[in-house]
Amino acid sequence: xxxxxxxxxxxxxxxxxxxxxxxxxxxxxxxxxxxxxxxxxxxxxxxxxxxxxxxxxxxxxxxxxxxxxxxxxxxxxxxxxxxxxxxxxxxxxxxxxxxxxxxxxxxxxxxxxxxxxxxxxxxxxxxxxxxxxxxxxxxxxxxxxxxxxxxxxxxxxxxxxxxxxxxxxxxxxxxxxxxxxxxxxxxxxxxxxxxxxxxxxxxxxxxxxxxxxxxxxxxxxxxxxxxxxxxxxxxxxxxxxxxxxxxxxxxxxxxxxxxxxxxxxxxxxxxxxxxxxxxxxxxxxxxxxxxxxxxxxxxxxxxxxxxxxxxxxxxxxxxxxxxxxxxxxxxxxxxxxxxxxxxxxxxxxxxxxxxxxxxxxxxxxxxxxxxxxxxxxxxxxxxxxxxxxxxxxxxxxxxxxxxxxxxxxxxxxx
Length: 414
What we know:
This protein is mainly β. 6% of the residues lie in helices and 60% in strands.
């Protein structure tokens, strides 16, 4: 019970930090809808290319598929947290700019109600918005110009409670109930010549909504290997939201108004499938995922770009030379490698925005091998400089840890 109170305290502190906001992204491609969706899983699965649909939660928590929690060991209590640093270089045909940030990644705990019912509670960023766009236009009938600045910032956070049910051996059925909350601020500033007043239109959109998605995993046991098949599904949904508008000029506030949104943010229908191959002692893991999202049926307020269905392919591999406590420490380190290709949901001027990257990670055993510290690197590219677009070259550094303990166990000291 003490562990639970500690976790809830940390959850509250992290929630407060998220609500106060943080500069979590600087991508121009986050200007549409909810922004850039964070769907790459938890700390360890991020190092495996974002795979996880067919990976059971053996020794760590995998929030990519709620059915994975069916593998949590009996009487085990698990706690995880992760952080991420990012440096991005934005390149156009004639300009280059850099952005960097360090952010909270996720917080989660996993436990069992009984042998057939396992669960996990966690908090993680769901989407990020962060952009700054400048345009210049002529004042009609004159040779004078004025600048318009479009900026956006904010995050939507996901508080989830996942349940995995194990009706028979090797089969796990999962359901994930989430509460999405946060705010996204969009600001349009008109900077005219000195003879005119500066005007700023600010819209803050508040999102609060529940969402449910599902998953399944089934494991085929072989003599030397375990093969797991996994699948996930989430229905499309309109999110509840309201907007606050504020119009100001150089001297005062002209008007402030709060209204229910006529155009709601929407989540697409989504589905995914995966397969993993694991040695009996988990010294070797190979995983492959495919994810599809139906963005074509999601309406946007921006009309200069439109959404298309996205397809994401990812591959991950993990190797541990030796695993027993009697082996040298260096031979018990986990080595992880991953890669992914994302044909994203954005299409601009007929050009699809694509993203690709690679991961390299290490897992250091702690506390007799029941807990671990993970750290890894990711490098990738999104977009191109064609048709006046922006190419993003990014580098990320991930740190996370998994602490594992046993419920109701009394420690004896001699």
